[in-house]
Amino acid sequence: MSRFFALSAALLAAVAALSSPPGYSQTGYPARSIRMIVPFPPGGINDFAARSVSIKLGEAFGQSVVVDNRPGAGGTIGTELAARSAPDGYTLSVGSVATHAISQSLYKKLPYNVLRDFAPITDILSAPNLVVVHPSLPARSVKGLIALAKSRPGEINYGSAGSGTSTHLSVELFKQMTGVDMVHVPYRGAGPSIVDLLAGQISVIFASMPSALTHAKAGRLRALAVTSGNRSPSVPELPTVAEAGVPGYAFSSWVGIFAPAGTPPAIVTRTHAETLKILRLPETKQRFFNQGVETGGTPPREFSAFVESEIAKFEKVVKFSGARVD
User: Fold this and answer.
1) E strands along the chain, which residues?
2) Are 158 and 165 within 8 A, CB to CB?
3) Per CATH, which fold does 17-126+255-321 belong to?
4) Under the phi-then-psi rule, with left for phi > 0, alpha for psi from -120 to 50, and beta for the rest, what region is 74?
5) Nearest 10 degrees: CA dihedral of 234, 240, 244, 249?
6) Smallest Cα–Cα separation from 157: which of 187, 127, 129, 130?
7) Neighbouring C-beta atoms of residue 200, cutoff 10 Å
8) How many other C-beta atoms are found inside a 10 Å radius of the C-beta of residue 51?
9) Residue 98 CA neighbour count, 13 Å, CB half
10) CA 267, 269, 271: angle at the middle one, nearest 5?
């Protein structure tokens, strides 16, 4: 009888091993380093989010979490790489309103489907964009920017982190609601666009808070407003775009952690729990406040529902803006 039970236990263990992804076990995960794909270059809000949690997440796991920047095509190259990765817990990625909501209706042929190919884990942060201009531009308010753009149609260039990103569509929505004509200059991420704005190569960006706030506070750029529905606690002196002359305008960004679809629920649950602990740390909250963003931490099921609702929401925004990427 004892031999029978021993054989049964061995058989069950073998079945469990075969049914679990390579490298995963309840007690042995993680057994090696974890890759966190960022589909944009260093310097933007996605990179800031990843690096804000990666080190301490690695400490909690007992293995390093390595940030892997894979920019290109408005974030779709790195996001597709994440979607096609093995669902074994050793590849995570950060996704944003651009890559995991806007992209679903913006691209005619998107190489991934957010609802099918990803397991949402949690949001890391949310933030308005910051309307910033080069100091040489004679616009000191949103109304001033609108008046200047209308007096010089097609002459003012605005940059973005790439076609289809929040820094792109937030301006397109602004253009639609105000009737101004500004020329889009897409970059491969927020960092390069800010560099050119500082150099005066472009005039305007509706930039992510982490990429532009420090420069604005130092006077290297002029901040005019925030794009959210409410004022930001980090820059309460700045009006919202709606307050500053465009009633009804509101646009916010968010960044979260995702795993490939099929990743074991235990890994998703643990990653959320450890990330939530990091986001609740006083130093994390202060760092985020300094950058003008708010911490997240939504549970996986709720975050998944939120992402689904954002896809539906931005389908209307993309249609309204007329933006399209083939």
Assistant:
1) 34-38, 65-69, 91-96, 118-133, 157-160, 183-186, 204-208, 222-226, 252-260, 294-295
2) no
3) D-Maltodextrin-Binding Protein; domain 2 (3.40.190)
4) left
5) 160
6) 187
7) 11
8) 15
9) 31
10) 65
**Ranges of each domain in the chain:** 17-126+255-321, 128-226
Exposure of 179 in the CB half-sphere (CA atoms within 13 A)? 4
- What is the 8-class DSSP label of residue 231? -
Place of tokens 């679809």: 261
pTM of the predicted protein model: 0.74
The amino acid sitting at 27 is T
Per-residue burial over 135-169, b if 16 or more Cβ lie within 10 Å, else e, is eebebeebebbbebbeeeeeebbbbbbbbbbbbbb
Burial group, residue 53, by CB count within 10 angstroms (0-12, 13-18, 19+): buried
Give the side-chain half-sphere CA count within 13 A for 56.
17
Question: Assign residue 179 a region: left if phi > 0, alpha if psi is -120 to 50, beta otherwise?
Answer: left
Q: Per CATH, the architecture of 128-226 is what?
A: 3-Layer(aba) Sandwich (3.40)
Concatenated DSSP letters for 55-106? Answer: HHHHHHHTS-EEEEE---GGGHHHHHHHHTS-SSSSEEEEEEHIIIIIHHHH
pLDDT tens by residue, the chain, 326 residues = 444 444 444 444 444 444 444 444 445 899 999 999 999 999 888 999 999 999 999 999 999 999 999 998 889 999 999 999 999 999 999 999 989 999 999 988 899 999 999 999 999 999 899 999 999 999 999 999 999 999 999 999 999 988 777 888 899 889 989 999 999 999 988 889 999 999 999 999 999 888 898 999 999 999 999 999 889 988 999 999 999 999 999 888 899 999 999 999 999 999 999 999 999 999 999 999 888 888 999 999 999 999 999 999 889 878 877 777 77
CA distance 142 to 221: 15
Check if the beta carbon of residue 204 is closer than 8 Å to that of residue 159. yes
